[in-house]
Amino acid sequence: MATLQIFYFDGTSFAQANSVYDDPALTTLAADGFYSNEIITRQQLNGVLLNAQPCASCAVDCGSGINASFSDPGFFDANVNLANSTGATVIYAYMTSSIPDGIIANYNNVNYNRLTAKNNHNGVTLVEGNNVQVDYAGINNQGTNLPTYVGNQDADLLANSPYSNIDEYSYSNATNNYVATGQTRSITVSSTQIGFATDASTIPSPVFTMVVPKTEVSVTNINVQIFAPDTGTAFDWEILCPVALPSFQGSNLQLTDACAANAATYYFVRNATGINPPFTKDTNTTPEVGNFVFTQPDGSVYLNDTNSLKYVIVNGTTALGIRNGVVVSIASCSGSPSLTSFLASPSQTFNQICGPGAVPAQPNVAYFHSGSAAYPIAGDTVYTTNAGTTALAAGLYFTFGGGGSNTYFEITGNQGLVTNVTSCIPS
Predict the structure, then answer these.
(1) pLDDT tens digits for 203-223?
(2) DSSP letter assigned to residue 267
(3) Confidence class for position 224, pLDDT limits 50, 70, 90
(4) C-beta atoms surrounding 169 within 10 Å
(5) Would you say 238 and 270 are in contact if contact means Cβ atoms under 8 Å apart?
(6) Quick check: 414 and 381 in contact, CB under 8 A?
(7) Is residue 195 classed exposed, middle or buried when 0-12, 13-18 and 19+ CB atoms within 10 A define those classes?
(8) Would you call the peptide bond into 360 cis, given omega within 30 degrees of 0 as the criterion?
(9) 223 in Cβ contact with 54 (< 8 Å)
């Protein structure tokens, strides 16, 4: 285990020092080993410090909110401990009202730099540096391993690029602040790295949302970097611990907005509002315009990550227009879904259907299901109307009987999904 002790180094900063010493006169070299200032770690070997590495053990815990305000430009680096769980890691970032900043996250040697915002495509317009609207910030920045600049629109960010002699900072748990490392770097900003909210947007500087899938139990560290080459930067960001994203039921992905029954499970990430962490997270149970949507609960696969607009119909009534993994429109679906009618009982208890001397209510109520068989099977969705507008409530429903086995299907949840079809022999 590491111990705290006072050491001394030559040079103006630990990052640029040549050696670590035991005494302030710098006459006695410290023992070979690893040394850290809670920002970086360096190994001393044969009395010489080797290259600096991020201090993994000094990482901020997930669930934390971080804010910063600096009069001078800077590059800001922070390591975050995501612990041993897996799921979607959600990062919310607010770049204040006027100065845009870049953000990128690295997990397991993969960089993530795509962001959306609340009401993106619904009052908030995201544009690249050439002022062309994009579905999400960073859409043409994928695969570059470069930060995406978000916040309020600012033409000077691109016009003043490149930037030189930008001071570097690393986040320190000891001070709960970013601390200068003594190193500098140059920063170049390109048009495709930009995803501003326009000045004309309802919220010209919204909270931006990023999703990083944590897929490995043993890889616990994520690195978050903020690039702030403009003078007078201030930013706030919050990182949540990895969990499964909220799910919703919808039709298979389709080319038109024609009504269709639920047939698949999808996932989405909620957006947020506010100016300081913890931000106020939305509570919607189905996607809103501006939400990222996924096929996996850890956010590893975006739904319809293409430039072609396609649709998912929710509960047979609502058409989500999805493009590049973002909900860009919501409207009523057109036409009626193709559903199969059948008869079943009202909802009953297990003992009414299968218990001793059971006399189940007769199957004389008309329902409609999304499958092609005469009766629903597990995975089908059942509705009370042939338009698919109302999902059948949770319960057990008897489908036929008399002389042989009694068969019933089970609905769980509030989306009409059949989870079980079972037969029983009445006593």
Answers:
(1) 999 999 999 999 999 999 999
(2) E
(3) very high
(4) 22
(5) no
(6) no
(7) buried
(8) no
(9) yes
Q: What's the pLDDT score for residue 42?
A: 84
DSSP per-residue string spanning 371-385: SSSSS--TT-BEESS
Point out which residues pair with 422 in neighbouring strands. 408
Q: Which class for 22: exposed (0-12), middle (13-18), buried (19 or more C-beta within 10 A)? A: middle
Task: Give whole-number Cα distances, 157 to 71, 101, 128, 203, 234, in Å.
Answer: 16, 9, 12, 20, 15
How many CB atoms lie under 10 A from the CB of residue 329? 15
> What DSSP state is assigned to residue 354?
H
Tokens representing 188 are 């170049």
Output the CA torsion sign for 245, 251, 253, 255: negative
Determine contact, residues 123/328, Cβ cutoff 8 Å. no
Residues 6+ positions from 237 with CB-CB distance below 8 Å: 65, 66, 67, 91, 92, 93, 94, 103, 224, 226, 277
- Cα 374 from Cα 386, distance rounded (Å): 15
- Over the stretch 65-121, which tens digit does the pLDDT of each residue have? 999 999 999 999 999 999 899 999 999 999 998 889 999 999 999 999 999 999 999
Q: Provide long-range contacts, Cβ within 8 A and 24+ apart, for 349-356.
A: 349/396, 350/396, 352/398, 353/396, 353/398, 353/406, 353/408, 353/424, 354/406, 354/408, 354/424, 354/426, 355/427, 356/427
β-bridge mates for residue 284, sequence order: none
Report the DSSP beta bridge partners of residue 87. Answer: 214
Q: What is residue 220's three-state secondary structure?
A: coil
Q: d(Cα 293, Cα 410) in Å, to the nearest integer?
A: 28
pLDDT at 13: 73
The first and second tokens of residue 284, run together, are 């919607």
Element holding 352 (H helix, E strand): helix 350-354
CA distances from 171 to 107, 128, 175, 236, 383 (A): 17, 29, 8, 13, 54
Tokens representing residue 258 in the block: 């024609």
End-to-end CA distance of the chain: 67
pLDDT digits (tens, 9 = 90+) for 9-51: 997 777 788 999 999 999 999 999 888 776 677 888 999 998 8
Radius of gyration of the CA atoms of the chain, in A: 28
User: Pick from 183, 187, 210, 189: which is nearest to 105 by CA?
Assistant: 210
| DSSP SS3 for 127 | strand
Q: Report whether 214 contacts 87 (CB < 8 A).
A: yes
Closest CA to 322 of 333, 306, 309: 309
User: Would you tell me how many other CB atoms lie within 10 Å of the CB of residue 316?
Assistant: 27
